[in-house]
Amino acid sequence: MSFDFELLRDAIVFGLLLGCFYAAVSLGLSVAFGLLDVPHLAYPAFLVLGSYGTYMLYTLGFDPLVAGVILTPVFFVLGILMYRIYYETFEKRGADSGVRGLAFFFGVMFIIEVAIIQMFGVDQRTVSASYIGRSLEIGEMRIPNRLIVAFIVALVIAATLYLYLSRTFTGRAIRAVAQDEGALRLMGANPVAIKQWAFGIATATLALAGALLIIVAPIEPTLDRAYIGRTFCVVVMAGLGSMGGTLIAGIILGVAEEVVKIYGASWAPAISFGLLLVILAVRPQGLFGR
Amino acid sequence: MSKIKVTRRTAVQMTGAAAVATGTTFGPQMASAQQGPVKIGLSMPQTGGLAAGGRASLLGIEVWKDDINAKGGLLGRKVELVVYDDQSSATTTPAIYSKLLDVDKVDLLFAPYATVPTGPIMPLVKQRDLLLMGNFSFQVNQTVKHDKWFNIAPWGPADSWGRSFIEIGEKAGAQSIAFLAADQEFAQNLVKLAKGVADEKKMKTVFEQNYPPNTVEFSAIIRALRGARADMVFVCSYPPDSAGILRAVNEIGIGENVKIFGGGMVGLQFTAVMESMGSLLNGVINFNSWLPEPSMYFEGTKEFFAKYQPRAVAAKVDPLGYYLAPYGYAQGQLIEQAVASVKSLDHKAIAGYLRSNTHKTIVGSIKFAADGEWEKTGTVQAQFRGVKDKDIEQFRGPGKQVILSPADRKTGEPIIPFEKARKG
Q1: How far apart are CA A117 and CA A100, in angstroms?
Q2: Beta strand pairing status for B380-384 and B358-361?
Q3: A115, A269, B194, B331: least surrounded by Cβ within 10 Å?
């Protein structure tokens, strides 16, 4: 295919928007895996659960984005409960908790998949809203409104998390627990309570991210498997625990995928993960990791 | 892998499995020595991307099983299905079918729904010389050339699917074509054959793009497609992608010059997708297997749907079930007719009967060609028209998917170009 500047320009714009969506669905993992070191393999399953929660509220008449906001506190509580179970059954017991934790979250992932199938069946689900199925026209360029919504919501989640983690006492405690749990304990804070709170926040972001997922594309119960690679790729590329880095890594992944798609879409996954390998080879700690 | 129905493993069966492990071979006749029910073994995608189709297909087969058991079964023995979930994956099916044969000791085999899970079991059934009733896979016997393969799907001659679509475009004056296909076996087989037809008709290929599984966003691809300015667009996509492609087409547009769009989009046949896509479907010309059009009713068709649809609602399976469920039932009818005729479960005898006769089923008369596919295509190309948003009931009657091809099932003429047809 010959070079076409307009195609390339459009692909970069689509990639920027898609990348922000990737970042939005990865920010919670940046907290859970990047800061708390919890091997949260069930993270994408919670993401899909958020989508189905959104779908359920949508069928009751709620706008998908409003549904995502309504589900946020529910997911916060769910996250706290999930961490408590993980802590009591695995983390508290010592050194090999990481490996056994992987098995735990792997199991949780399958339980969530089966629960969704039992409740909603295996059919694809989509939602409709005024911003889905329409596009913003700028000259010859048409930008899907749903991607613009994903872009804005991603920025809001990233900015909120960044401000929370850097400007509040609890937020700084979350960052501290990632660096030196023992020192935090000496300061009189309870690391377990802090991690539990942080895990709740990470899970809460998935309510909104899940709403974005079903806004951007149709969902089905096992869609989580498609996002395991993408979300971990974004978080590792960013540098564990970096919110701004997660946003930029998501954008890099999105732009790489979309640009490759116009010249040979089959290569999109290989190019994306190849990029991850290159970044890790140059900066093993990730783009913004310390 | 989750087992749906576990048959009791007796000591005799365990001994049989041990015999297999030590090298004892079993021919197709081995199962007929067993007493008790006639066991039909199959895997079916009940989770993963193909699950929506797989579960509907399985329910169609189950309706047949209940009907045949109510009539006394096969050869006076009740029919039992031994079913495993293959998770829509090609990697699980060889082990599942080995287990069905060596441990569960089934008498007959049905293939799973779709090409991807079916392809890997073809060498196994050929090596063991077993009858395999295919279930909507595409061209899996092309290189294996197994003489006991019979595909219930109405695809017919290999290139008829793409040919019928391209001929509709050709009649509308199209001279150039674009191809967009998933990197999956089915889509690649289909697009390869369609390219052959396009070359034969001297159509100019102006766009050719494959995309990988799990593609989230199609905007960039559709933008590139729009830039190609093709007269017709042949799309070969799998269920999760078809909806994403249509949505991107609606948002990005594909240009005024496109006369027809669609062809091989899997997923748009499923009720949940049709209901959720609503008016976005309008104008798309796409393949299908069964539609509630006057030309598609045969003996037993109405009765089948009267049994299927209430059960489907209860089971949270495709509530209309047009695409796959009646063919699942017809698959059973073929076995029923063959076994009744040859009075045996012998695979060679059943295959001989199936190859030599024309079979009346609820999806019409079926005659198999030498490759185990339908001798004459039953694949319809139909155009979505006047589809409204959020209304499942509209699909129960005729008129929403007008059949354009083949001639003996045709119920209308195409609305062209695509942009005009999209307006409903």
Answers
A1: 26
A2: unpaired
A3: A115
Question: CB neighbours of A130 closer than 8 A, spacing ≥ 6?
Answer: none
Domain assignment present for residue A51? The answer is yes
- In the CATH scheme, what is the homologous superfamily, with its name and number, of domain B160-293+381-422? Response regulator (3.40.50.2300)
List the single residue in B55, B211, B280 with the smallest CB-CB distance to A266: B211
Half-sphere exposure of B274 (CA within 13 A, CB side): 28
A194: how many CB neighbours lie within 10 A of its CB?
Answer: 21
Give the distance from residue A171's alpha carbon to the nearest chain B alpha carbon, in angstroms.
Answer: 33
Q: By the 8 A CB rule, do B406 and B167 touch?
A: no
Chain B nearest-CA distance from A262, in A, is 6
Query: A268 vs B209: CB contact, 8 Å cut-off?
Result: no
Same fold across B11-151+299-362 and B160-293+381-422: yes
Q: Single out the residue of B53, B422, B57 nearest to residue B269, CA to CA.
A: B53
Rounded Cα gap, residues A237 and B228, in angstroms: 35
β-pairing, B364-367 vs B358-361, is antiparallel
The Cα-based distances of A249 to A19, B218, B399 in angstroms read 8, 20, 49
How far is B381 from B408, CA to CA, in rounded Å?
12
Of residues A10, A218, A226, nearest to B214 (C-beta): A226
Distance CA B327, CA B321 (A): 10
Class of domain B11-151+299-362: alpha beta
For A225, phi then psi, to 5°, come to -65, -30
Phi, psi dihedral angles at B110 (to 5 degrees): -105, 145
**How many helices and strands, by DSSP H and E, does chain A display?**
11, 2
| CA–CA separation, B97 and B89 (whole Å) | 13
Inter-residue contact B127 to B42 (CB < 8 Å): no
Asked whether the beta carbons of residue B216 and residue A261 sit closer than 8 angstroms, the reply is no
Side chain identity, residue A86: Y
* pLDDT by residue, tens only, chain B of 424 residues: 444 444 444 443 443 443 333 333 334 444 444 569 999 999 999 988 788 899 999 999 999 999 999 999 999 999 999 999 999 899 999 999 999 999 999 999 999 999 999 999 999 999 999 999 999 999 999 999 999 999 999 998 989 989 999 999 999 999 999 999 999 888 998 999 999 999 999 999 999 999 988 888 899 899 999 999 999 999 999 877 899 999 999 999 999 999 999 999 998 999 988 998 899 999 999 999 999 999 999 999 999 999 999 999 999 899 999 999 999 999 999 999 999 999 999 999 999 999 999 999 999 999 999 999 999 999 999 999 999 998 999 999 999 999 999 999 999 999 999 999 998 6
CATH code (residue A29): 1.10.3470
Number of domains chain A is built from: 1
- The domain segmentation of chain B, as residue ranges, is 11-151+299-362, 160-293+381-422
How close does chain A come to B47, measured CA to CA in Å?
A: 7
CA-nearest of B254, B217, B42 to B135 is B42
Cα angle B129-B132-B137, degrees, rounded to a multiple of 5? 130
Residue B49: C-alpha distances to residues A80, B157, B240, B397 (Å): 31, 27, 7, 28
In three-state secondary structure terms, B72 is: coil
Contact B378, B156 (CB under 8 A): yes
